[in-house]
Amino acid sequence: MENHQINLSIRNVSKTYGNGVQALDNVSLHIPPGMYGLLGPNGAGKSTLMRTLATLQDPDEGSIRLGEIDVLRQKEEVRQTLGYLPQEFGVYPKVNAEDLLDYFAVLKGITNRAARKEVVGRLLKQTNLWDKRRQKLGGYSGGMKQRFGVAVALLGNPKLLIVDEPTAGLDPAERVRFLNLLSELGENSVVILSTHIVEDVSELCTNMAIINKGKILLEAEPMQAVDALKGRIWRKLMPKNTLEQDQQVISAKLFSGRTIVHVYSEENPGNGFELVEPDLEDVYFSTMAGFNKSCQQVEEVSI
Ligand code: ADP
Prior knowledge:
This protein is of the alpha/beta class. The protein contains nine helices and 14 strands.
């Protein structure tokens, strides 16, 4: 199969942990090449799904295919073509980036010295760490460590790259740099970005899903999902703590000491509300609140 045709297909995947928590509830997703955003609050089941895709744990039920590969049965094949940047990963603080990346490259099976030098150099440049390659990783900032993690994940040209909550601990400048790096990754591979930050998805992803309590609530293209909300999101600026109970409030944000309230309504709610252009945050909050049923699309996919 040609690389550019690789799709990831997740069908009816469920997982209940030993403590009784159902982390995944009949999850089905069709993930094409490109950047895919898996958006959901803490505890939604994102990491459980990411670890399952990375062959680190098994679901109770369901099937997963990456192109021709049966992910749950052909784990070695998956691992050969997988790059996984977990939520938290350790680095050896006393080793420099170049040496550690070289070491991981050996583990990945790149045994030829010259080939390894070329790959390590290219990845350090791609992740903008070339100038800092001799610096010990213990002295790296959060953003630099994350970019180093991407360099490690990219060893061996993965066809599936999984990045779990990568921007959580980054300052705004580091976050932008990190997202720019992700956006440059090949369009030929499947890149899954799991995050609770709506902007990560709106800035980067061509396809997305919203997950909550183990269930997929929405699978959509961000732009289409935003379009589908046009004419339904209304805004009002209020003094603090004066929310009206009868409105379908989807978000209330403090701004300069006042509260900006967004409500979902198919008709003009009157009462001083004005129509606003929806954005992905409105999609997220109205979906989470159960109002956004118009563009719900959770359908069976064929492999
Ligand atoms: P997210 O990545 O979206 O924050 P997780 O997949 O980490 O969500 O967690 C989903 C749910 O499963 C949470 O309620 C969490 O507490 C629970 N959970 C996660 N890992 C385990 C585990 N190893 N054992 C028991 N419960 C777990």
